[in-house]
Every structure is written in structure tokens, then in C-alpha cells.
Structure of ABC transporter ATP-binding protein:
Amino acid sequence: MSDLTLTNITKSFGKVEVLRGIDLTIRSGEFVSLLGASGCGKTTLLRIVAGLEGVSSGKVEIGGSDVTDLPPEKRDIAMMFQSYALLPHMSVSDNVRFPLRMRRVGNREEQDAKVKAALETVQLTHLADRAPRQLSGGQQQRVALARAIVSNPKVLLLDEPLSNLDARLREEMQVELIEIHRRIGLTTLFVTHDQDEALSLSDRVVLMNAGEIEQEASPREIYDAPATAYASSFLGAANLVPARIEGNVARLADGQTLPVSAGSPDGKATLALRQENVDFLDEGGLTATVITRVYLGSRHRYILDLAGQKISVLAPASVMLEPGAQARIGIAPDRVRILPA
Ligand SMILES: Nc1ncnc2c1ncn2[C@@H]1O[C@H](COP(=O)(O)OP(=O)(O)OP(=O)(O)O)[C@@H](O)[C@H]1O
């Protein structure tokens, strides 16, 4: 069953079209990330699902009902933003109770039971009587999450909820989100511009580019088999090298060739090479010129000139080459992603 279906959504602000023909279905219990560069339209799409923004055309269905023209409070959704905006004069449990009171859900005992369950889910039962200012940033974030899930919405909408946290807390909350999602299986739409976050949290990643869906796939597939040059450079910053495919080899601009998997049509192509898949060799392989070496502690990053193209490559710290030196590099044929030119 699908909990959220978007059909041919378009949205313009004045003359500017920010969403074009978005079709997206999210299955019950699925965790889907909308990933994309700033301005690609992901927040606008989330706000359309929430009912905070109208569509120019298209249809929004939640739990099988058409909600396109319904206001936010009539949609079975909950939303959590970057700024979690807890009410400072209320205790943790009253903050979590707030949406139930606003929507007049159940009597006091029923509300108590729901608040208790939500606080248990985020493991904050012991802090129920505290005021928000007596909590750490991560704890406040978890209160906001409890408040979002307390009414057991059909769809949970999260807009960059972790982007205000420092790196360590952010990683902790990512793990927490994964575990909470596993426990309660809420259908979730998560907006982020952070590819690591999208890859680590989601069942499916929807990569957006300029108001359109560029590719949607599982994290592994979108990383290992990006469908377009945009997808491969957005996810994991692949090196893009122009080439000509000639059967089982790719010929680079300077005439050097490298073996590739069979099956791609002959002719112009772009090779997408992930920096972690390039190996330094003692002999054979391709020749590239070292431009820069950056020390990263356990490894080096080399910027190389490969057939007139700058590429970035990771190497063990034991590989010591000076700028101007010739490096020999190899890439396993099944690690060379061939994209249309
Ligand atoms: N209310 C508005 N009026 C006019 N233009 C808007 C409005 N809201 C958003 N836009 C424009 O729509 C485009 C998409 O914005 P949106 O916020 O959806 O992008 P985003 O991908 O979420 O980016 P970010 O990660 O920076 O929030 C942007 O060019 C933005 O300037």
C-alpha cells in the first residue's frame, strides 16, 4: 500500500517554475530522502505535501485520499523542521501533548498514554517533567520528534532536522532516527542536501535537480550505478573523464586506453571514476601527472592530471609522489561507470 502519492506536481512562483512534473509514490513504512542542491525545490515539495504551499497543478494523495485542496490540519501528517521550536514555558510532556490538545484528540487519559508511548519511543521518559531549557540540543531534538510522532501520522515530514546540530550529535541522531524508524515504521519523507545522511538513513533516495527528479533508487544503487553525470558527481563526487568507447576499452583524449566492461555502445561517453576506486600501481595501467598532494592523516589525496582532466584520487599514506611526477593508476573494469557523453 502507498501512503503518499504525488502525481505530476508542478509549482511556479510568479513566472519561475520551481517544480516540474514530479511523480513520486512512497510505500507504507518506507523512509525516502529528497536529496538535492540548494534551490532544487525539495523544501517546496515537502511544503506541498504538508499543505503549507499549494500546487500549480497535480495531485497529492495521502493514505489513498486526495488531499490536494485540504489545509495542513486536515492532512494526516506531522512535520519536523530544522528549528524545533519547543514551547519554553511548558514541560517536555506538555510539549509532546500539544498537538493532541490542539486537535482535541481523546480525553486526558488517552492523551497521557500517547504521550508516554511517544516519550518511550525517543527514550526520554525520565525527562518528562523538565523544561526544554534544561535539556541538551539532542534531547530537545528528540522532544520535537516525540511531538511529531505522538498523533501517529500517516506520513512524517522532516526538513533538514539535523542540520543545526554539531557533527557528533548529528551522527548520534542519525543512528537514533534509523532505530526509531525501525521500531515504529512510520512512512517518512526526509529533506536533506547532505548525501551521506540520505545514503545512511533511507530505503530510497530521490535525487532532485532543478525542479525535476534526476534519479530515484536505493542508496546502494544510486551510489554504485548513478544514471547520469549529475547523479554521479552529486553522490560521492565522482571524477568525470571524457572518452570514446571502442569495444572493451575506453580511449581517453590523449590516446591512452583502459579496459571497461563490455556492453556499452561504441562512441563518445563520459567515464565516472570514484576516487576510492582508483588504485596506484607500480607498473602498467594509465599514466597521470601529479598536480597536488594533500595529507589526510591515514591517507593522501592526490590531484592528478589524467589526459588533460583533473581527477581526485585517494591513496594510502605510503604512496609518496611529488608534484610533477608520473603516477601509474588502474581502475577495475567493473568500477568504471560509463555514462552517455
Ligand atoms: N515563496 C516563494 N516565492 C518565490 N520563490 C520561492 C518561494 N519559495 C521558494 N522559492 C524559490 O523556489 C526555488 C526552490 O526553493 P526550495 O526552498 O524548494 O529549494 P530547496 O531545494 O529546498 O533549497 P534549500 O536547500 O536551499 O532550502 C528557489 O529558487 C527559491 O528561491
Remarks:
- The pocket of adenosine-5'-triphosphate is lined by residues 13, 18, 36, 38-44, 193 (CB under 6 Å).
